[in-house]
């Protein structure tokens, strides 16, 4: 597989009350096209990752909706898979190029979450859950709290150790001018923040965000500014929607399955990965992910993060240099594409103050629901 | 391109108050797998076309949601493009096979529309429209009525001539035991039915329906029962959401663009098509489609239908042998796949009482919104 990324960009992430989904999308698309040195008329298709525009914004037909802004009426597609919508849209786009159907395509991830009542947002997000969990009144913080409880008991891990995840990610976010939160945190800050679902506190949880991200990809090797970056693997795994049907609470089968296939396709091992963007919707999610992806041994994920092994300028396999979902923000459909933008910048060596020195291999880990779907991409120079 | 259809099936279409989306989906998937002589464990991925499950049913993450019923956790995807969701899901599935990513996949189209208040259904469907049209209070009957007015004035066509579309399609539906309506109509029945939006009457409009359809496709040539059927073209076109930005009210650019590419890819001309399933959401839609697809000359589409040129057992290029959206029903996300099921049956020679004798080449025409997106598939033996 030889898919090249020609350009990539995100909008600012945050509570962007004054912009519409359309404005967010067009800003990201046009920035990515400019970064790729491409005109809209050179694009063969648009793929859109979005979860909530229908449920919250009552807008469907999103391929056609967002392609209007390109000014060219090329084929356009909306791919949905909850918080993995962005990664899944990229997977579909890559397949369409490898099929020979399209040559150069834009993949957009976009989400507008803040202009709705809080209850509608919570109910909207639970659209990714199972009937049983929803009917029992569960929310995603509650579901991930069950995983955290299970993990903490199994491996004798403390809440303070889990708190090292948001501390690291807010530190990383402090170098990212597009991040929703750019202020550092301490373990004490996390520990004293409001309890959301035992043992998760407010600062263990990713925020409600608006934002968009876009990448331009192609099948042809094209000379671009700086280093060429390729996508060497794009793999998807699924599992049951509900936790109670899963074989484990401390590992996501969807991630393990997709990662195994992705490493094989790229011909690498986990230790080859220099930098990864991880789906840290909650602190526990990043801890489990670093183990499922093979970066840390089982039960050691939190300790490795606390020891600085995933932290910028000191670690070996740096996770979430963008600040992750926690600090950079989590506009759900945009997240999977924002992760690609960050790794593209890292591998190009244009990640500014958060540059991982000498990064050659990067990975993105994008999860939908509580692990019902996972998408892994591997990027290499 | 050499994509083979191994099996295909639909549920009954209609007002199915006693079944859930999950039950509909699983019935269609398992019937299609049985028809294909495949076990769930032989499937590499699931593609789902659906428009309204999020908006009406508050269920997202539909790939994972429906793959649960397969009992195997393969990669699964939800593709949305309003009433073209089914066709777009098939397009994505075909690309994923041609890319070499998956070998044998199930494509499901499913929609549950009847368990919601009528106003919610109307508002939900308008999620496929433009802000301007929605804010002006337009509904799809209203928008297609504008096209009908424009067409009737331009070509001096009467309401009676347009009424020949539902008369033909109800006649066809009378041979289809899965159709929502299996009773014949007369021109007089259509003319005296309730006015919905001048000049469209109730019997010019496709119904609100529940239903699901599924196909099993593969990249390998496999010996199956009866004739082998191949998909020789899968093409997509887009246009603006709103009518007022279009170059014409009497032709859909999205259809013309996609059809031109599809004919070229399949190496055929319109006159080669023996049988076609057309997106007759309203009478005018089938008339315009037969012209946009090149079956009839401009302005002659309605007359050709009235003259019996598209009618079973007498016509040359038969349209909507299933009964079309009007008589077979229009569970929006399922429609694009149901069209494939019908053409597969026709080309296999297993279409029972509605068999088009000697059918070798078939076409499906699936449209989203009022023409913002169109998907054309060409099937051949």
Explain briefly what this protein structure is.
Chain A folds into two domains: 124 residues, Peroxisomal Thiolase, Chain A, domain 1, CATH 3.40.47; 219 residues, 3-Layer(aba) Sandwich (Peroxisomal Thiolase, Chain A, domain 1), CATH 3.40.47.10.
CATH fold-type name of the largest domain in chain A: Peroxisomal Thiolase, Chain A, domain 1
Strand order of the largest sheet of chain A: 3-2-4-7-1-8-12-11-9-10
Helix content of chain A: 25-40%
Terminal CA distance of chain A reads 13 Å
The run of helices and strands of chain A is EHEHEHEHHHHHHEEEEHEHHEHHEE
Low-confidence stretches of chain A are none
Overall pLDDT of chain A? 96
Please tell me what the overall shape of chain A is: globular
> What proportion of the residues of chain A form beta strands (DSSP E)?
15-25%
Q: Largest chain-chain contact?
A: A-B, 57 and 57 residues
Number of domains of chain A: 2
Which structural category fits the helices and strands of chain A? alpha/beta
For CATH, the homologous superfamily of the largest domain in chain A is named as Thiolase/Chalcone synthase
What is the CATH top level name of the largest domain in chain A?
Answer: Alpha Beta
In this structure, how is the largest beta sheet of chain A organized? Answer: 10 strands, mixed
Helix segment tally of chain A: 14
């Amino acid at each position: 597989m030889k898919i090249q990324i020609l350009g990539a960009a995100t909008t600012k992430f945050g509570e962007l009350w004054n912009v519409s989904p359309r404005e967010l999308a067009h800003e990201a698309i046009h920035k990515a096209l400019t970064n790729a040195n491409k005109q809209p008329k050179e694009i063969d298709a648009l793929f859109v990752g979005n979860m909530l525009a229908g449920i919250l914004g009552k807008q469907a037909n999103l391929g056609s909706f967002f392609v209007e802004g390109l000014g060219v009426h090329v084929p356009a597609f909306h791919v949905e898979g909850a918080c993995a919508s962005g990664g899944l849209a990229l997977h579909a786009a890559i397949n369409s190029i490898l099929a020979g159907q399209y040559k150069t395509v834009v993949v957009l991830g976009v989400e507008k979450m803040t202009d709705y009542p809080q209850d509608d947002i919570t109910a909207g997000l639970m659209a990714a859950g199972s009937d049983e969990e929803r009917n029992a009144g569960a929310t995603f913080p509650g579901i991930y709290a069950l995983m955290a409880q299970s993990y903490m008991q199994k491996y004798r891990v403390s809440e303070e150790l889990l708190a090292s995840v948001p501390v690291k990610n807010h530190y990383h976010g402090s170098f990212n001018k597009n991040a929703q939160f750019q202020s550092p945190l301490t373990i004490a800050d996390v520990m004293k923040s409001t309890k959301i679902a035992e043992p998760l506190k407010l600062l263990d949880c990713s925020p409600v965000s608006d934002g968009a991200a876009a990448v331009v990809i192609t099948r042809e090797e094209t000379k671009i500014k700086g280093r060429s970056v390729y996508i060497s693997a794009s793999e998807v795994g699924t599992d049951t929607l509900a936790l109670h049907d899963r074989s484990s609470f401390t590992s996501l089968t969807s991630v393990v399955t997709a990662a195994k296939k992705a490493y094989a396709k790229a011909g690498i091992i986990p230790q080859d990965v220099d930098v990864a963007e991880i789906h840290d919707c909650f602190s526990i999610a990043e801890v489990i992910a670093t183990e499922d992806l093979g970066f840390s041994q089982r039960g050691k994920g939190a300790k490795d993060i606390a020891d600085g092994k995933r932290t910028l300028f000191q670690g070996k396999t740096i996770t979430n240099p963008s600040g992750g979902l926690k600090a950079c923000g989590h506009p759900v459909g945009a997240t999977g594409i924002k992760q690609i933008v960050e790794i593209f910048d890292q591998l190009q060596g244009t990640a500014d103050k958060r540059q991982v020195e000498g990064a050659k291999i990067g990975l993105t880990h994008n999860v939908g629901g509580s692990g019902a779907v996972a998408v892994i991409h591997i990027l290499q120079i």
